[in-house]
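so my prof wants the structure for this chain in the tokens format not the other one, which i didnt know existed until like an hour ago. anyway here's the sequence
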Amino acid sequence: MADCNETQSTTPPAFLSVLPLELRSYIYSHLLVSSQPIKGPLSRSHNSEKYSIHTAILRTCKQINTEARQIFFGKNTFCISSVPPEEDVETLIEEQDQPTGAFEPPLQISDLHLIRHLEIDLLYYPSHQPQFAHCKAQPQPQPHPTGADRYITNLSHLLTLTKPSLSSLALTFDTRPHLASPSSSPDQPALNLPFYLTGPSSADTSARFRSALEALAIPEMALRFDFPEARFDFHRVKREVLVASCLVSIVGQVLMARSELGIRGVLEALGDEQAEDAEGVRG
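here's what i got, hopefully its the right format
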């Protein structure tokens, strides 16, 4: 990450020779470990999420950078999410020709062996919906990898490079940066099912991604689905079960459960209104 580069200073602070490593590590943890998963700027922009961490200490001197860097990358959970291009005609064409599959927060290859906790958001949800999104009855096969395919490939490389140190992994599907909350104006976008299934579908068809998951030394993983009005958590999913499962099918079942909850809420609200009307008549 850009703000984790060490300074050119060669003069170590006095506390390095005064405090034992155990106490220094405690100080590093206090300054650098967040109680929330660390996301990229786009992913956290929907709720202006901020972290009470102080990465300036990493620029103090080489020894502190070496010691504190292990704390920062080893104890924090990093939430990886896609950075799809803006959706207009020109960028749609460019995405097919040169898909980047970029993700955030930015991580340096030299730091990946230190990371122990990851959350990976499998959604590849464009920032803007094209006006012609519903013109085609069926999506056409793509001769070249799409941005979502490239994103899943990059995630496969990330899992492979973090494999030696990784001790926990959650696969997430977070719609909140892209959807309206229940209290938002009706002009806000609703869930676009083709967009929502793009990432899971690419993951299902990627042998490299499944191989990277299967190779991890993590017996159980987590699945989480976040919507503005609800969250669905599956805390302990066996790795071999997840590798053999169809993610699109799992997503479909969660969407059905979400719809059922919404219908139940509407019926309960109608029941409350009818009860109030009945009370008013009796009164």
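also thought this was worth mentioning. Residues 128-143 have pLDDT under 50 and may be disordered.
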